Amino acid sequence: MLTYLLAMLASCANAVASVAQRMANRDLPREDNLRPRLILRLLRRPVWFAGILALTVGFLLQAGALAVGQLSVVEPILVCELPLTLMLASRVFRTGLHLREWASTLGMTAGLAALLYFLAPTPGSSQSVTWDTWLLGAGVNVVVVAAVVEWGRRGENAYTGVHGGGRRAAAFGVAAGAQFGLTAALMKGAMSRSAQGFVSIFTGWQLYAMVVSGLIGLFLLQSALNAGRLLAAQPGLTLSDPLVSVLWGVLAFHEHVHGGASLILALAGAVLIVVSVMVLARSPLLVPDHPALQPAGSPD
């Protein structure tokens, strides 16, 4: 029960972080995407630090959940971050949510419940992750992130095209989520060392690799939130993180899940989540909001 509570609180913290960071990013030049100059500009904005504080709280809550639970349980719960973010953003940016958005949110919630209930993950042997598994898994993870970033960069011009900003925001959101999935795996590896004593967490390489991976994910997240609307970046970010994490949990940490009919029903829940996100991604609210493309005072 503690695992579910901590994961839900992490989702709430992440939702606050996304909205605060979007508030800081929304009027910055988009040519700063994937450049250190973007971070330098953000460092002058107090609301960005509020977002980073919320993100840090979310990471700590996620670490606590992973210390007592499995990757394939904790990370799917973080999908709740998306509807929480949209509801909060609709109030902060005065952008009303309509039937499409509420139906997608309901579909995601039902799909998540089905996924967790029928998958029913049980603990694996996280201490048995070998060096070659870490290297292979991290290598594939990094290649996927790099490929998605490049796909986003090669999209239609984000400053003059109607779809470019949304494509870049979505792609960078997916890349950030995939990077955070690797971060979660490293976090699980670090927290698993707590069985040998709290101090042992700081003597393992996973903790420091997690910090580096998390900073890369944070940098990609800022570019996603700068490239387009929050509604464009958030779905990919929210889905790719748990998807990558569950793959790490099952393939690397040997977490056990139900097979047979239960697995089919769990996959149906996962499909419902994906379909709901795809429907949400086609929302009329997914419109570039660069000042050059919208009249002054238009909502986020």
From TrEMBL:
<feature type="transmembrane region" description="Helical">
    <location>
        <begin position="73"/>
        <end position="90"/>
    </location>
</feature>
<keyword id="KW-0732">Signal</keyword>
<protein>
    <submittedName>
        <fullName>DMT family transporter</fullName>
    </submittedName>
</protein>
<feature type="transmembrane region" description="Helical">
    <location>
        <begin position="233"/>
        <end position="253"/>
    </location>
</feature>
<feature type="transmembrane region" description="Helical">
    <location>
        <begin position="131"/>
        <end position="149"/>
    </location>
</feature>
<feature type="transmembrane region" description="Helical">
    <location>
        <begin position="102"/>
        <end position="119"/>
    </location>
</feature>
<keyword id="KW-0812">Transmembrane</keyword>
<keyword id="KW-1133">Transmembrane helix</keyword>
<feature type="signal peptide">
    <location>
        <begin position="1"/>
        <end position="17"/>
    </location>
</feature>
<feature type="transmembrane region" description="Helical">
    <location>
        <begin position="199"/>
        <end position="221"/>
    </location>
</feature>
<feature type="transmembrane region" description="Helical">
    <location>
        <begin position="46"/>
        <end position="66"/>
    </location>
</feature>
<feature type="transmembrane region" description="Helical">
    <location>
        <begin position="260"/>
        <end position="281"/>
    </location>
</feature>
<keyword id="KW-0472">Membrane</keyword>
